[in-house]
Structure formats: C-alpha cells, structure tokens
C-alpha cells in the first residue's frame, strides 16, 4: 500500500478570481454544455457556441481546437466535480463497501445532467485512436483525478491497511476500470433517472468489495499474485500516461483527431 497522504484536488475558485483567459475558457465550456443539452451535440457548432458565449470563432478555436475537444474539458470538469462530491459524502465513513458505493453513486449523480447527449460523446471518445478516449495519454490528468478518488476510497477505509501491498497499489486503477464499465452501462441506459444503472451499482459494489476483501486471506495469495502479474502485463500498458505526452524537441503531435479537426474547421457552420 502507498502510505503517502493523498493530495486532494484544489477547490474550484470563484469565477471572478480566475485569470481572464481561464474565465473565457470556462465560459466557452459552460456555453457548450448548455447548448449540447438544449440542441444536442451533433446540432451544436463551434460557431454557435462562440456566438452564445460572446466570443469570436477564432477565440473559441484558440481555447478548443474543435467541438470534439470540448469533450476533454467535459472530462476535466466532471472528474473534478465528482472528486469534491465523493470526498464530502465519504467523510467520516470507514467501511470499504460503503465508501466504494458512495464513490460510484456520486459519479452517477454528478453526470446525470449530461445523460441525454452522452451517447454522442461516447461515439467520439470510443475511437481507440482518438486523443479524446478516456484511455489516451491526453486524458491522463482527468483519469488520474478519477483514480485518486478510488485511492482515497481504499486509504480511508478499514480494509486498506489489510490489503496485499501489490494489489493495493494496482487497486485504484482497477476500480477506475470498473467505473468505466458502469459508464458504458450508463450511456446505453434509457430507464427513468437511469434507475437500471443505479441498481447495477447497488448490486455490484458489494460484490467487488467482497472480492477485494477475500484477497487478504493467505489461501487466495497465489491467485492474487497471478492476477497482479496479468494486470501489469496486459491491462496497465493499454492505459496512457502523462510521460507519453512528452515529445522530443522539434517534434509535434499528429493525432488523427487533431488533423481531422484542423481540416474541418473551415466547414464548421
């Protein structure tokens, strides 16, 4: 287990205290989220977002290379809101099962307003070659914030100190992958107030917690070791990291999404 005290994300400053550039960036994202809800993602253009936000189209593109890149802003904002909400709900609770369910329920609640156009977001984010995939290097900051939530779920629980150290190191990433399964289920859930997703969380959170708790026992240690080896060899290498973002001097990023975006700028109505 990592004994270091986790550093929580900073509190969101009041909009008027942000630098002008950050205020403009936040305004564009807030406007885009509203228009996506009102008109749908496909029917909302960068030109419409700029007009509603009261900025030039060029200025909108300065902060976001294209409409798709607002999804990255959405990731960042959602994970930050989720972290603050989950942390507040978990305060004073030490039962691992309860903390895990709180963290998952918190995500469903924080994302509720965006469910109507989530499938449109998912269509872009699901492309494995896209920089906007939640598994991409570019998504590392938002993903690390989300993983940190699950690190706090473990470290603040009475189960945390009892876990196998190697599994304890990997578990926050595994719980984030579990959240991705829930996100996929949520995207396609068309029940009122996503009741099926909420029931799914209620059922699977205790099940996952039991599996984690069983890993403490000596009889299961060989299985834990095998699982850790497989995860390190096959799962973690597929998840991008911040180090992969570093480019040698003189090189540029040429992701397919960025190239496509630049080609389509003039066509965006």
From TrEMBL:
All copies of the HTH tetR-type domain together span 22-82
Task: Write out the ranges of the annotated region (Disordered).
Answer: 1-21, 246-269
Q: Which sequence positions fall in the DNA-binding region?
A: 45-64
Instruction: Cite the Gene3D superfamilies for this sequence.
Output: Tetracycline Repressor, domain 2
Bias (Low complexity) ranges: 251-260
| Comp. bias regions, Pro residues | 1-13
> Which domain of life does the protein's organism represent?
Bacteria
Sorted UniProt keywords: DNA-binding
What is the protein name given in its UniProt record? TetR family transcriptional regulator
């Amino acid at each position: 287990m990592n004994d270091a005290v986790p550093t929580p994300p900073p509190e969101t400053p009041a909009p008027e205290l942000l630098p002008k550039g950050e205020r403009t960036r936040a305004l564009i994202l807030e406007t885009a989220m509203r228009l996506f809800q009102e008109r749908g993602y496909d029917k909302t253009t960068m030109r419409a977002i700029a007009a509603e936000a009261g900025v030039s189209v060029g200025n909108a593109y300065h902060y976001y290379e294209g409409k798709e890149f607002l999804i990255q802003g959405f990731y960042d904002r959602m994970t930050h809101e989720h972290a603050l909400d989950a942390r507040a709900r978990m305060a004073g609770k030490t039962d691992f099962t309860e903390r895990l369910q709180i963290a998952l329920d918190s995500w469903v609640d924080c994302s509720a307003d965006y469910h109507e156009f989530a499938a449109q977001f998912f269509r872009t984010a699901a492309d494995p070659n896209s920089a906007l995939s939640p598994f991409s290097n570019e998504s590392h900051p938002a993903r690390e914030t989300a993983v940190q939530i699950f690190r706090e779920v473990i470290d603040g629980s009475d189960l945390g100190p009892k876990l196998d150290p190697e599994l304890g190191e990997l578990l926050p990433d595994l719980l984030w992958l579990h959240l991705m399964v829930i996100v996929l289920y949520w995207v396609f859930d068309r029940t009122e107030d996503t009741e099926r997703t909420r029931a799914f969380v209620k059922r699977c959170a205790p099940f996952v917690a039991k599996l984690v708790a069983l890993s403490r026992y000596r009889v299961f240690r060989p299985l834990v070791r095998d699982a850790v080896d497989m995860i390190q060899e096959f799962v973690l290498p597929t998840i991008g990291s911040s180090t992969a973002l570093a480019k040698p001097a003189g090189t540029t990023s040429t992701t397919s999404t960025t190239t496509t975006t630049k080609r389509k700028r003039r066509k965006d109505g």
